[in-house]
Design brief:
- The protein contains nine helices and no strands.
- The protein has a domain of 120 residues.
- The protein is mainly α.
- 61% of the residues lie in helices and 0% in strands.
- It is globular and about 55 Å long.
Length: 194
């Protein structure tokens, strides 16, 4: 019997029945192809659905609509849905104490979903093409629901300090003496080779 720390020659490993290096690599590539075949939108949708379930007051369906709507109002493809959820959380908390706001959000998401079903035969959040969803937003952009949500998101989303680095914003500078001596004229991206 061999010592467990003794090295086994490569030829002996390859001769053992079962999983060879070739089979391992072939199986590994098949697994990689299988994982690659999972659509990014499918994974994104399941993550969004998990976040939507966090909308305890409004419910998951309305939460899903609000998440997609928030992303469509302020679209940033490189920003995760969780930041949009963070921006919407105070609005839902406020709706818990404000029956009028709660009704506005509930009726607004229901009306948007109804409009989407009438035009695209599916709820708003299930419409895959952003351009199709934007058609619906143009129809409601002057309504109280859209304006309230947009107004809240301007500060709720862009005042989130966790989002700032994702945009390259370093935050407030006045506490450190302003930007003048802290990178105001750092424009190395504009420099060209002469």
């Amino acid at each position: 019997m061999k010592d467990k720390h003794e090295r086994i020659p490569v030829a002996e490993v390859e001769a053992t029945p079962g999983l060879s290096r070739r089979r391992f690599l072939a199986a590994g590539s098949m697994v990689a192809l299988g994982v690659g075949a999972l659509s990014a939108t499918g994974l994104e949708a399941s993550a969004r659905e998990a976040l939507a379930r966090e909308f305890t007051l409004l419910g998951a369906e309305a939460g899903n609509t609000l998440l997609v709507l928030a992303r469509d109002i302020f679209p940033h493809d490189h920003i995760e849905d969780r930041y949009y959820r963070q921006a919407l959380a105070p609005l839902e908390a406020q709706a818990a104490d404000d029956a009028e706001l709660r009704q506005l959000l509930a009726e607004g998401t229901a009306a948007l979903d109804e409009l989407a079903r009438a035009r695209f035969l599916r709820p708003y959040a299930a419409i895959e093409r952003e351009s199709d969803r934007l058609v619906l937003l143009y129809l409601i952009e002057h309504g109280a629901f859209f304006l309230r949500l947009k107004g809240h998101l301007v500060t709720g989303f862009y005042d989130n300090k966790e989002v700032w680095p994702l945009f390259g914003y370093e935050g407030s500078s006045w506490e450190q003496g302003g930007y003048l001596n802290r990178g105001f004229n750092d424009i190395d991206w504009l420099e060209q080779d002469a």
